[in-house]
Design a protein that fits this description.
Structural class: alpha+beta
Largest sheet: 4 strands, antiparallel
Number of strands: 4
Radius of gyration: 14 Å
Helix content: 40-55%
Number of helices: 4
Order of helices and strands: EHEEHHEH
C-alpha cells in the first residue's frame, strides 16, 4: 500500500472554506476512486490554519494518476490553491498496519458518513 501524509498551511480567514472544500475531495476520493482506501482530514488544535491529510492508496499510481485526475480533486485544487500559505508538504509512506487486506476491508465503512 502507498500512503501519503500532507501538511497544508492556509492563509488566515480561509480555514472554514478549506474544510468544506476538502470534505468534498475526501468523500469523492473514498467513494469514487477504487484505489483510494482512506482519506482523513485533520486540523491542528494549536493553529487552525494548519491541516493534515492522511491518504492511503492501493498503489502510488492510484494517487498520482487516478486521484489527481479525478473531478473532485481537480475542483478541490482549483478552489483551494489560492488559499495556500506556502507549498503543501507531502511525505510518502509505506503502510505497515493494517495489512493490505485490512485496508481493503475497511473501505466499505468509509462511505457511510
Amino acid at each position: 500500500m502507498y500512503a501519503i501524509f500532507v501538511t497544508i498551511k492556509i492563509k488566515p480567514g480561509f480555514s472554514e472554506q478549506f474544510k468544506a472544500a476538502s470534505l468534498g475531495d475526501a468523500q469523492g476520493s473514498v467513494r469514487d476512486e477504487p484505489g483510494c482506501l482512506r482519506f482523513d482530514i485533520h486540523q491542528s488544535p494549536s493553529d487552525p490554519n494548519t491541516f493534515y491529510l492522511y491518504e492511503v492508496y492501493e498503489t502510488q499510481d492510484d494517487h498520482l494518476t487516478a486521484h489527481r485526475n479525478a473531478p473532485h480533486y481537480v475542483k478541490w485544487r482549483e478552489t483551494v490553491q489560492d488559499w495556500f500559505d506556502g507549498d503543501p508538504q507531502a511525505i510518502p509512506l509505506t503502510t505497515i498496519f493494517p495489512s493490505d487486506a485490512g485496508w481493503r476491508q475497511q473501505k466499505p465503512h468509509l462511505v457511510n458518513w
